Amino acid sequence: MTDSFTQGGTTSPSAFPCGGCGARVEFAPGTTVLRCPYCGHQQEITAGDRQITEHAIEELAVLPRKPVGSIGNYVYACQRCGARTESSESATLCQFCRSPLVMDPNSTGQIVPEGVLPFLLDQRGVHEALRKWISSRWFAPNALKKVSSAESTRGTYLPHWTYDSQTYSAYVGARGEYYYVTETYTDSDGRQQTRQVRHTRWYPASGQVSRFFDDVLVPASLIVPPDKLDKLAPWPLDRAVPFQPQYMAGFHALRYDVEPEPALDEAKVRMSRVIHEDCRRDIGGDEQRVEAVNTNYANLMFKLMLLPVWIATYVYAGKNWQVLVNGSTGEVLGDRPYSKAKIAVAVLVALLVVGVILYFVVTGQHHHTRTR
């Protein structure tokens, strides 16, 4: 894994010139090619003999790398127009000519991604996903409809750490078993009645459970709240490919700002929730109490992955609202305001419907009384 770390260096964006017209090609979502937006020429992306490799957690302690806090912004020199762009992203677009700018991953001073889940949804696909999501938001303001056609929607690769581990857990708890007792009571009419009342008898329980965890995901960037990224799951990691800078061409990519060590702590928290449920199942009975769990983690492995997210941001009532789309599955997660006008109209319509129903009920009763 030595070549996945670096002491730093100058920032030089990777160039992907079109073999047809010389312009800059971009990755075409849903394919394995770079496509020229001008002449349509395509160039195949090949990984060669590269494979996605996971690494032992012990390697972190002996290999040099720059801490997140010591890395400043990158300065890109666009090879098309010559402009210089300063950015904290590892892939972006030239602010003047919109040419793709992709950093040489070995010049960042950070761990290089092992794999990338390429975008499957292109601009048309993400707009269709947003349109369906918006159409199901009845009480959203009309301004929300503009999000599905916004050209400012950004395709961004977000870094995630993944962790594997074989776990062995010893637990102590209690198993609850139900039993029923017949009780006598007096009902509201003063009569004696009987009923079965459930009680729980508790027995001490202890044991061991084991589980292998594969690719426990932990978001490695704080730009997008981790709880939102979790809700975009599942991620089809079986479609991931070895990292190649070409997949970044034409897209944005964030560098990680969560180091792998604290991310491992979060991964263990996520594992512990699953282990807790394993303990409950092992205890059995009708109810369970898990009082203490001691877990040993064996063969801990990690890697850095880039996952695709379309990010749309819009302004409504002076506030920024964000919508996220899983760039592989089309799952949509978004903040949205509520239209007070639409809610008021809905309430008025509901009241009108209730009024009409009551009118016909009263009229029908009056007619029935007159005809008797």
SSE topology:
Blueprint: E1 13-14, E2 26-27, E3 33-35, E4 42-44, E5 55-56, E6 74-77, E7 84-87, E8 89-93, E9 100-103, E10 115-116, H1 123-135, E11 154-186, E12 192-219, H2 226-231, E13 241-242, E14 252-254, H3 260-283, E15 287-316, E16 319-326, E17 332-334, H4 340-370
Parallel strand pairs: 10-15, 11-14
Antiparallel strand pairs: 1-9, 2-3, 3-4, 5-15, 6-7, 8-9, 8-14, 10-13, 11-12, 11-15, 15-16, 16-17
Describe the structure.
With 372 residues, the protein is of the alpha+beta class. The chain is built from 4 helices and 17 strands. The strands form 3 sheets. Strands 1, 5, 8, 9, 10, 11, 12, 13, 14, 15, 16 and 17 form a 12-stranded mixed sheet that branches. Strands 2-3-4 form a 3-stranded antiparallel sheet, with no helix packed on it. Strands 6-7 form a two-stranded antiparallel sheet. A hairpin with a 2-residue loop joins β15 (287-316) and β16. The longest helix has 31 residues, at 340-370. The radius of gyration is 29 Å and the shape is extended. This is Zinc ribbon domain-containing protein. The chain crosses the membrane at residues 297-317, 343-362. Keywords: Membrane, Transmembrane, Transmembrane helix.
Tally of separate helices: 4
Total strands: 17
**Which strand-content bin applies to the residues?**
35-45%
Shape: extended
Order of helices and strands: EEEEEEEEEEHEEHEEHEEEH
Class inferred from helices and paired strands: alpha+beta
Question: Unreliable stretches, pLDDT < 50, 5 or more residues?
Answer: 1-11, 342-346
Q: Compute the separation of the termini in Å.
A: 94 Å
Helix percentage: 10-25%
- Average pLDDT, all residues: 81
Largest sheet: 12 strands, mixed
Radius of gyration: 29 Å
